[in-house]
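Q: I have 288 residues here and want to know how they pack in 3D. Can you give me a structure?
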Amino acid sequence: MHSKPARPFEYRMETAFQGRISHSSNFKSSDGYKDKIILLVGFGNSAIQCASDLVPVAKKVYLSTRRGSWLLPTTTTTNDPWDISHNSRIHYFGRKFIPKYFRNWLWEICVNERFDHVSAGIVPDHRFLAANYTFSKNGFLDHLNAKRIEIVQNLLSFTETGVELVDKRVIEHVDEVIFCTGYSFDLSIVEEGKLIFVRENDFHLYKHIYLPELNEMAPHNNFGVIGHIQPKGGFFPVVEMQSRFFFDVLSEKAELKSTFLMKASLEKKRCQMSLEYVKTRRHTQIRC
């Protein structure tokens, strides 16, 4: 899922910019960034990782964001990883029986106790549970509080030596702009992408494995995609469960639903995603 770096379309005067333009996929270490002014475009996990690594050596680090984000520390107050804590039984039953608006309210209180999103100007226009988690690397919040990292508005255009933001602010003498804007993916490895069509990082497989149409094309649906999923928690346990299910079907220990029922399940999932999440390329393969 992280094979092709994605970035916005070319900005106005981008070709006239005298600094360097790169993608976070090319960022390996902070070597070579000493005393430079860096603008990071994006506010996901890769942007926070890059910013945290650059702060000790760079002259100034700016983070340009469209909508802000709710920031989670990597660990809870009891030093448990968030993904383990969130996927406990008590949280499972909480998600089933506690109204979502109340859970949003509780989560937002929780994250604001760790860091004041209002004073930092990064309160997003969506509720906490309407987006995938963004984790703040250890020390990132301290850098924000100390103003070593400055949050700025979305990038509008370039100048010869800097950038212009949507609020008309101009930042001069920018040495490098790093796009931390995620990745694109497709399944061109399978029949040159003609079997499973991907648009804007979006396609739908039953159980995130099976293409329903293959039920009609062959007596046995023995083609599956494993691991193309974004779970809220550990990745490899989900991959193992997918693999077990695939081989159970292959060995006829389990049976797939009909094409109609698989498509109905996918449509229900699609509606659920559109209601619960902000519509972006980041929220297409989440396992709720």
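Q: Anything worth noting?
A: The first helix runs from residue 45 to 54. The chain has a mean pLDDT of 86.
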